[in-house]
Amino acid sequence: MIRSDRPGGVLVAGSANADFVVRARHVPAPGETLLGGDLSVFPGGKGANQAVAAARAGGAQTAMLVALGDDDQAKLLIRSLEGAGVELHIRRSARSTGAALITVSDEGENAITVAPGANADLRPEDLPPLDDIAWLAMQLETPLATVLVYARSAQVQGVRVLLNAAPARALPEALLRAVDVLVVNEEELTALVGEHGSIAERLARTGVAITVATLGSRGAVALVDGDYLVQPAFVVTPVDTTAAGDTFCGVLVADLAAGEALAAALRRAAAAAALVTTRAGAQSSIPTRAEVEAFMAEAQPADHRPLALYCGIGATAG
């Protein structure tokens, strides 16, 4: 179904940002000014978050291709990535390292604005050799033309591709044809295929054989060659939802690279994402495999039927 005989680790090619975070009563509305708490700076960025999550998930060696400036923010990110055990391939840029401005509400929701900076300088020729790589994971915070070249290069070399189509945007069919696993949230799914139809019907229109929709506190659903897998969310009290989706992707690709079945990989990814929301920050909040396993051992079984019904696939999906 999804397993590959090709041995190897995970390469994450994508963004790294310094996250400038302020907590406030709620996410500000357009034109609204809020007084928030103290400013905190965390290592983040979709690509870097996913690389840390993959490395901490264990089971597969993790590397990252990233573009960074020559500044203190780059040093912060390098310390975090290397500290998690991620091997780095760095393109140095004359631009500043990417940054994200994040407001986190008292309910744990967030609003994020990204200044790409050096991330915009990641080029097609920067892709390292893929000899020891089984899975390539990417997002959309780096140039789309670069993402497309990387996906095609991986496809030609027999490397599986996981694309987290975030931030939301329309994508060329050429890219989707080179993707083995597509991960989207509801907004991103709408950007790809429109809002007409149920989630199940829209998943079937992406053109990717394995498409996973993450649905926040509801959980996740995957379309796999015409069949659906439903993974309800683990119940927690959220503090900060930053990096939850990235953690889901990183753990998912690490487990797939380690040879796990998709259903098991979805469950562990959902558990890791739930744990992230109980902690502040991005990479600093990502759990280890031992923490995820302990959490899963104590978690109560969830009823998948409400999620299945929400997605429009009935109460019989497993």
Automatic annotation (TrEMBL):
Top enzyme category: transferase
Cellular localisation: Cytoplasm
Free-text remark on how the cofactor is bound: Requires a divalent cation, most likely magnesium in vivo, as an electrophilic catalyst to aid phosphoryl group transfer. It is the chelate of the metal and the nucleotide that is the actual substrate.
Regulation of its activity: Activated by a monovalent cation that binds near, but not in, the active site. The most likely occupant of the site in vivo is potassium. Ion binding induces a conformational change that may alter substrate affinity.
Domain Carbohydrate kinase PfkB: residue ranges: 10-289
InterPro entries: PfkB_dom, Ribo/fructo_kinase, Ribokinase, Ribokinase-like
EC number: 2.7.1.15
Sites where the protein binds substrate: N17, A18, D19, G45, K46, G47, A48, N49, E141, D246
Record-annotated active site: D246 (proton acceptor)
Cofactor: Mg(2+)
GO terms under cellular component: cytosol
Residues at which K(+) binds: D240, T242, V276, R279, G281, S285
Keyword Kinase assigned: yes
Example GO molecular function: ribokinase activity
Segments forming a coiled coil: none
Main localisation: cytoplasm
Residues holding ATP: N185, T214, L215, G216, S217, R218, G219, G245, D246
Gene Ontology biological-process entries: D-ribose catabolic process
SUPFAM superfamilies registered for this protein in UniProt: Ribokinase-like (SSF53613)
Top-level taxon in the UniProt lineage: Bacteria
Pathway: Carbohydrate metabolism; D-ribose degradation; D-ribose 5-phosphate from beta-D-ribopyranose: step 2/2
Assembly and oligomerization: Homodimer.
Family stated for the protein in its record: Belongs to the carbohydrate kinase PfkB family. Ribokinase subfamily.
Role, per record: Catalyzes the phosphorylation of ribose at O-5 in a reaction requiring ATP and magnesium. The resulting D-ribose-5-phosphate can then be used either for sythesis of nucleotides, histidine, and tryptophan, or as a component of the pentose phosphate pathway.
PANTHER family, sorted: RIBOKINASE (PTHR10584:SF166), SUGAR KINASE (PTHR10584)
Name of the protein in question: Ribokinase
Origin species: Sphingomonas lycopersici
Lineage: Bacteria, Pseudomonadati, Pseudomonadota, Alphaproteobacteria, Sphingomonadales
Gene name of the encoded protein: rbsK
